Amino acid sequence: MRLKIINGTVITPYRYIRNGTVLVEDGVIIGIETRDVDFPNAEIIDAEGHYVAPGFIDLHIHGGGGHDFMDGSVESFLKIAETHAQYGTTAMVPTTLTAEKEDLLETLDFYEKANAANANGAQFLGMHLEGPYFALSQRGAQDPRYIRNPDPAEYEEVLAYSNSITRWSAAPELPGAIDFGKRLKQKGILAAVAHTDAIYEDVLEAYENGYTLATHLYSAMSGVTRRNAFRYAGTIESAFLLDMDVEIIADGVHLPAPLLKLIVKIKGPDRIALITDAMRAAGMPEGESMLGSLKNGLKVIVEDGVAKLPDRTSFAGSVSTADRLVRTMVNMADVSLLDAVRMATATPARIMGVHDRKGTLVEGKDADIVIFDADIRIQRTIIKGKTVYRNAIPQI
Ligand SMILES: [Zn+2]
Fold first, then answer.
1. How many Å lie between the centroid of ligand 1 and the Cα of residue 204?
2. Is residue 355 a known part of a binding site?
3. With 0-12 CB in 10 A as exposed, 13-18 as middle and 19+ as buried, what is 159?
4. What pLDDT, in 10s, does the model give residues 124-144?
5. Any bridge partners for residue 31, and if so which?
6. Ion ligand 1 — residues with CB < 5 Å
């Protein structure tokens, strides 16, 4: 199985290679050339002058195409992976919502079956458990009935149950949260601070004990607070001050342009991962939808490119796709295309610990590749050398 991609502008994503050629064998990149080269017996893909970039890696995603990972079926996992592959995502970390332990364990079961059956969708990089150890005051759209403090008896059972957990988000100020972070670090699981009212002292201790990422920066987390006369730095300022990684919902709605620019200015493209945090309505027409599982979900309305509570007082989830994240960073945050692509590829790959095989177009990496036009509309998605999506609309 050999593949040669010609006639594109390759984004490595550390530089452009104009009129570059990508050589693939058995799903792995075996060469990036600055001109067309002889490569016998290969399928040839003409990029038609479009960009050829690493596939997008989404570290935080709940659903799409009408499905949620908590729906309780293998089919949901596969449909979400296939839907987002159409928008350039080649790898993702399926994310749960705060729920009862039994529902989490069941979702882990479905994950393993789906992972084995996933032939045409974005690859799964393990599960992200978002909760249930959160601050009630910062729950956002997480169901308050299931929010609780870290309990070793419970999380040890979950950790023993499955090897598929690669990421876990928790509020670090809760009793037991530091021990929980240490345990995750010991297991090689990425610990992230989320849905939290922590002040700097809490976040610093957490950072020193395994928490290295801030989950959807600015959403459901503390900023500067005052207690009597004295001011305290919150989670947001702590994430800026410490050498933490941050992920941002760059759908252009959750964070306005000045905040996107501020985050880029302070953290830079090597510390920022673009995430969709998408719910089931991503890739679907606007209108009524359901946040969370079909069984326990919350009715929401999708309009203006975002999900809202029916009374429109609050956002209730993102409906973004990965191409839109990159577009937003270029168009709203004035970031270069190279940097925007980096935040959707190389940086999330490094944060997730898969940079040895994903996130850049260099020799030896998996052939996870997207071809997109000047407006970042996806023309083709290739996963491990196999085309899983092609835009059927002829180019004008
Ligand atoms: Zn989420």
1. 23
2. no
3. middle
4. 999 999 999 999 999 887 888
5. 23
6. 130, 277
